[in-house]
């Protein structure tokens, strides 16, 4: 027989130590004095229990049980192994309890970062639905531009992010959760509001506009689509707030390019006028992002499911 104390050095522990199920079975035999009763308690057949004990004996290189018609009695080696098994099982139970506590703590909070349009016009509805499903989950929200959202997710300062830009930062995985369209808007008294023909892209690029700050999804999309025309002209104003942008346009400062989601109410009330543009695709994808690797779990996974089921995953280098 091979002495268990002389197991080959460097051999993985999992190959030298019986699995938890076998150890729990041995403890049940020691407590009940019968392999059959131990098998019933652990929910397996007696032949399976006997085979598991024999496999453990082969693995350890010692006999653990003396079997007789009157029952099963631990050998001297079996008594010693049972004491070790009890410590291992108790440690495993403590490990499991700790892991459950960690999961419970993780499931009790959710940190979300979202770009401004999503934070203002889409996220509230999703969070209301999440609260109904998980009333015990505390949600904190950071709202900023797409660049800052990506940075917070990469730094693990947010469990899930939502961005509007045309690209996904390296180090993040993403899934498309919706689509949006940018629209050129002007005050009703602006000359563009009375145009009978669409704007030409070169005219839009040459005109000073009220713009979001660099790093915002709006600005990234506009910079990309106007790049073939020399890029946007120097802005009249750069503002980080959608509300401020709309107020500046309605105040007659100049035209602006904003999300259709953000101006729907003002367009319906004719406080703003949409100005058509020919030959320019101002559509964009809205994405959820998380650090590259496994998809989110817990409340982040549930929030993701509430946004859009079955969207394709976009993986970045």
Automatic annotation (TrEMBL):
Source species, domain of life: Bacteria
Alphabetic keyword roster: DNA-binding, Transcription, Transcription regulation
Presence of keyword NADP: no
Pfam family for this entry, one: LysR_substrate
TM annotation in the entry: none
InterPro entries: LysR_HTH_N, LysR_subst-bd, WH-like_DNA-bd_sf, WH_DNA-bd_sf
Keyword Transcription among UniProt keywords: yes
Domain HTH lysR-type: 18-75
CDD domains linked to this entry: PBP2_CysL_like
PROSITE patterns: HTH_LYSR
GO molecular function, one term: transcription cis-regulatory region binding
Family that this chain belongs to: Belongs to the LysR transcriptional regulatory family.
PANTHER family linked to this entry: HTH-TYPE TRANSCRIPTIONAL REGULATOR, HTH-TYPE TRANSCRIPTIONAL REGULATOR CYSL
Name of the protein: LysR family transcriptional regulator
Provenance organism: Streptomyces liangshanensis
């Amino acid at each position: 027989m091979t002495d268990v104390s002389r197991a080959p050095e460097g051999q993985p522990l999992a190959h030298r130590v019986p699995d938890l199920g076998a150890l729990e079975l041995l403890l049940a035999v020691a407590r009940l004095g019968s392999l059959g009763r131990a098998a019933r308690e652990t929910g397996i057949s007696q032949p399976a229990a006997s085979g598991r004990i024999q496999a453990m004996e082969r693995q350890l290189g010692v006999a653990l049980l003396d079997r007789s018609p009157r029952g099963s009695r631990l050998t001297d080696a079996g008594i010693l192994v049972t004491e070790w098994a009890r410590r291992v099982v108790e440690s495993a139970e403590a490990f499991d309890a700790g892991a459950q506590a960690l999961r419970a703590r993780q499931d009790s909070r959710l940190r979300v970062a979202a770009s401004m349009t999503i934070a203002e016009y889409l996220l509230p509805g999703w969070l209301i639905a999440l609260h109904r499903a998980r009333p015990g989950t505390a949600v904190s929200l950071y709202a900023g531009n797409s660049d800052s959202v990506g940075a917070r997710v990469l730094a693990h300062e947010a469990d899930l992010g939502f961005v509007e830009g045309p690209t996904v930062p390296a180090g993040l995985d993403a899934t498309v959760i919706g689509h949006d369209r940018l629209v050129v808007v002007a005050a009703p008294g602006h000359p563009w509001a009375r145009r009978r023909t669409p704007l030409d892209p070169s005219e839009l690029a040459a005109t000073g506009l009220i713009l979001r700050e660099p790093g915002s999804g709006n600005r990234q999309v506009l910079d990309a689509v106007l790049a073939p025309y020399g890029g946007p002209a120097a802005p009249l104003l750069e503002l980080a707030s959608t509300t401020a942008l709309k107020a500046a346009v309605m105040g007659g400062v100049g035209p602006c390019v904003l999300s259709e989601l953000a101006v729907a109410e003002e367009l319906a009330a004719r406080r703003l006028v949409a100005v058509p543009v020919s030959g320019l695709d101002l559509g964009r994808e809205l994405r959820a992002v998380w650090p590259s690797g496994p998809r989110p779990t817990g409340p982040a996974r549930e929030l993701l499911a509430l946004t859009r089921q079955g969207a394709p995953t976009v993986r970045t280098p």
